[in-house]
Specification:
The complex is a heterodimer. Chain A is built from 14 helices and no strands. Chain A is an all-alpha fold. Chain A folds into 2 domains: 52 residues, no CATH class; 234 residues, MetI-like fold (Orthogonal Bundle). Chain B has one domain: 3-Layer(aba) Sandwich (Rossmann fold). In chain B, helix 5 crosses helix 6 and helix 6 packs parallel to helix 7. Classes of the chains: A mainly alpha, B alpha/beta. Chain A: InterPro entries: MetI-like (IPR000515), MetI-like_sf (IPR035906).
């Protein structure tokens, strides 16, 4: 029975992935303009004369012919995709999109991945404590303060932090993900420079994100604490820590967990604002650049990656939830 | 026989708003070793408040403002949290009303036995604790392989029996039961009651059994206390309470349930509704609904006085003498 469930979920996500790939192919083609025409126009504008026919041919060979049959284009697209080929970047011509994405991905995973996990851990832990003793001084101070923090726009926090710590105090670099003067690799100095560059963007993300987890977890804990099984756990004379974590928090965490899995899926998309403010060399910055410069193949590649990552995270969340909540197992 | 539990003048207030609401007022009783005391009353009579106060599980805004709960001479009201925790389950256990809500939905049934067994016996190995959990489930007629089930995988009756087995895990001397048979059907109800009686005979624990169902207590309890408006209005042996109820409220309560073992008769309810504890009536709290009230019932509050084997708080029995 569990295998049938697994197969059904997998089937659903494969269908969703197929639909996502289809849409990812179709959407840019429904938009006005196409990469070939954009390049041709640019060339004509710069040179002031018409592009020769053979140049036009080679441009279309690389970026696709907008006048070709749609089915033929889709077949070409799928064939490329099956080789991991996401096309060629227009802006960074002739670097393949896939190479740029693979370069940016580790930075994003490092920065956004660790901060998402850290923010979730901090927020959840503080939320349990605040909800466990709702109305205590800890709760009465922390919860309104967190509500305030959550309502401050992120870009403002990031800019302020950059201005204070980067510009006024000069404790952290103003932009980038590493010291460009050092050779890239596993050297100690390089690792230190990565940490030095990463600490401020990371801190701003955690600072802005933990509040949401805290509030959600606090409110769920407040309701869970009133459950009979928590009362019975206390009646059993278990240690307060065990009652709090094994009985109250364990149950209160279930809804938060779904949000966490979704957030992990979103990690691959990068923290767009963070990477823009700190010029961090991740996926978010890549997307920002490609949007600004209308680098269609780039955008398409990044969107596809983000979609697939979100789908994967959802699948993992689905499966993990089954492990976390035995009641779900029974209904499947 | 020595008393396991002596409750004296127990008073519980709900401190909300300007005026505290008194849900338990000057409650006193004794419980002997292995005795089953039934506590009956309508909704709002203070019986649930009494349970959380007895087991020291009350949460704000409920506050015990006066009285003592002596368990073998130790006053539970004055006990600190650490000492109280050592006493819990090994001496004082509880069965809650709805076993569905009382068992942790994400823990295996057995694990909920294992954690309490090992919390109170540090020398017990994990393996032995699981074996012990299976034995305890067997005691209430649940097969040993169910020890690895989750609560939702058991039927309602099984869950309730598992809760009773859980309460007995550490061999308590006193088990407080809060309407443990309300959520199950009548057949299961009888089966559970029979099991409680059998286990009490075998293990010798005392029980405080709280319910709104007086007829059920007549089958089960040695003595019965009737609560009204936060006070005990009558307390006596099950036979004398059923055969010769003194308080007009007890009579009303008895006559509003169909008898379990005798032919059907016409049932009479008690007119009116329970008192509003935020604004209790002066004098005897039952007087607005009482058919036998007379001059002064709305002014003087009667004290609980002993008549023969029985105690009653009603002005019909002014100096502890029987009226007839």
């Amino acid at each position: 029975m569990r295998l049938a469930f697994l197969a059904r979920r997998l089937g659903f996500y494969l269908a969703a992935a197929a639909a996502a790939i289809g849409l990812n192919f179709l959407l840019p083609r429904l938009m006005p303009g196409d990469p070939s025409s954009a390049i041709v126009e640019e060339l004509e504008r710069v040179s002031g004369q018409q592009v020769p026919a053979e140049t036009l041919m080679s441009i279309r060979a690389i970026f696709g012919n907008p006048h070709a049959n749609l089915a033929q284009q889709f077949a070409d697209y799928l064939r490329q995709l099956s080789h991991g080929d996401l096309g060629v970047s227009v802006v960074n011509f002739p670097v393949p999109v896939a190479d740029l994405v693979w370069q940016a991905l580790p930075w994003t995973l490092l920065l956004v991945g660790t901060t998402t996990i850290t923010a979730f851990a901090i927020g959840t832990l503080l939320g349990v404590v605040a909800g466990w003793k709702a109305g205590s001084r800890f709760d009465a101070i922390l919860t309104p303060f967190t509500t305030f923090l959550s309502s401050v726009p992120y870009f403002w926090v990031a800019l302020l932090a950059l201005w204070i710590f980067g510009f006024v105090l000069g404790w952290t670099p103003l932009s980038g993900g590493y010291d460009a003067d050092l050779p890239q690799g596993f050297s100690f100095a390089y690792a230190v420079s990565v940490l030095h560059h990463g600490v401020l963007p990371a801190a701003t993300i955690v600072f802005s994100a933990f509040g949401g987890w805290l509030l959600g977890m606090r409110n769920m804990t407040v309701t869970t604490v009133r459950e009979d099984y928590v009362l019975l756990a206390q009646a059993k004379g278990l240690s307060p820590k065990r009652v709090m974590f094994r009985y109250a928090a364990r149950n209160a965490m279930l809804p938060s967990f779904t949000g966490f899995a979704m957030a992990l899926g979103g990690v691959v998309g990068g923290a767009l604002l963070t990477e823009i403010v700190f010029s961090y060399p991740g996926i978010g910055y890549l997307l920002y650049e490609s949007l600004q410069k209308r680098d269609y193949p780039m955008m398409q590649g990044v969107f596809l990656l983000i979609t697939l990552a979100v789908l994967l995270a959802n699948l993992v969340a689905d499966l993990a939830y089954v492990l976390l909540d035995p009641r779900i197992r029974a209904n499947r | 026989m020595s008393a396991v539990l002596v409750v004296e003048g127990l008073t519980v207030d709900y401190v909300t708003g300007a005026e505290p609401v008194r849900a338990c007022d000057d409650v006193s009783f004794e419980l002997r070793r292995g005795e089953i005391l039934g506590v009956a009353g309508e909704s709002g009579s203070g019986k649930s408040t009494l349970i959380t106060a007895l087991t020291r599980l009350q949460r704000p805004p409920a506050v015990t403002t006066a009285g003592r709960i002596e368990f073998h001479g130790t006053d539970l009201v004055a006990l600190g949290p650490d000492d109280l925790r050592k006493l819990r389950w090994t001496s004082l256990a509880i069965v809650l009303q709805s076993a569905m809500d009382a068992l942790n939905p994400v823990m295996r049934v057995g694990a909920q036995f294992v954690d309490v067994l090992r919390a109170h016996d540090k020398t017990l190995s994990r393996k032995d604790a699981w074996t012990r959990a299976a034995e305890l489930l067997g005691m209430v007629g649940i097969s040993a392989d169910r020890v690895r089930s989750y609560p939702h995988e058991l039927s309602g009756g099984m869950r309730q029996r598992a809760s009773i087995a859980l309460a007995l895990a550490c061999g308590p001397e006193l088990v407080v039961m809060d309407e443990p048979t309300t959520a199950v059907d009548v057949v299961m109800q009888r089966q559970i009651l029979a099991q409680v009686l059998r286990l009490r005979r075998e293990l010798g624990f005392a029980v405080v059994f709280v319910t709104h169902d007086l007829s059920l207590l007549l089958e089960l309890a040695d003595r019965i206390a009737i609560m009204y408006g936060g006070r005990i209005v009558e307390i006596g042996t099950a036979e004398s309470l059923y055969g010769k109820p003194r308080h007009p409220y007890t009579r009303g309560l008895r006559d509003s349930f169909p008898p379990l073992r005798s032919p059907l008769r016409k049932l009479n309810g008690i007119p009116g509704s329970p008192p509003d504890l935020r604004n209790p009536p002066p004098g005897c709290p039952f007087h607005p609904r009482c058919a036998d009230r007379f001059d002064g019932c709305d002014e003087q509050r009667p004290e609980l006085l002993t008549i023969e084997d029985h105690a009653v708080a009603c002005r019909l029995y002014p100096s502890g003498e029987d009226q007839s």
